[in-house]
Amino acid sequence: QVRLVESGGGLVQSGGSLRLSCASSRSIYSPTVMGWYRQAPGKQRELVAAYMDVRRETYADSVKGRFTLSRDNFKKTVYLQMNSLKPEETAVYYCHGRWGASEYWGQGSQVTVSS
Q1: Which end of the chain is more exposed for a tag (fewer CB within 10 A), N or C?
Q2: Are 39 and 45 spatial neighbours (Cβ–Cβ below 8 Å)?
Q3: DSSP result, 10-29
Q4: Mean pLDDT in the chain?
């Protein structure tokens, strides 16, 4: 069993920045996928950004140029730097990791962007 613990969410004004952290109980040297999803009220969960196949990064079109992934393998932590946040990006942000056929989710971190 892998435990993923998010932190760093909160309330920010439109145009502001937040950095989310996801600490993993398992090494993040070689997950198949490691990244972030979000789910806004009444909407489906969507991919925000993720490392695919260890190092390749992918971003949702809506966040390209504003959000950035980074990682600290020693700390087993993945980060999501979010800049120029918009009110419509208010959501619960979930850390997600997949090692082979097994996938895991964090408990979620609320991000609220006020207009």
Answers
A1: N
A2: yes
A3: EEEETT--EEEEEEESS--S
A4: 95
Q: What is the mean pLDDT of residues 96-110?
A: 95
Q: Among 20-24, 51-55, 111-115, whose mean pLDDT is lowest?
A: 51-55
**For the chain, where are the E strands, in sequence order?**
4-7, 10-13, 18-24, 33-39, 46-52, 56-59, 67-72, 77-82, 91-99, 102-105, 109-114
d(CA 82, CA 32): 23
Which residues are CB-neighbours of 60 under 8 A, at least 6 positions away? 46, 47, 48, 49
The residue to which tokens 């971190």 are assigned: 109
Six-digit token string for 21: 């952290």
Assign residue 15 a region: left if phi > 0, alpha if psi is -120 to 50, beta otherwise? Answer: left
Query: 């190092």: which residue's tokens?
Result: 55
* 52: Cα separation from own chain's centroid: 13
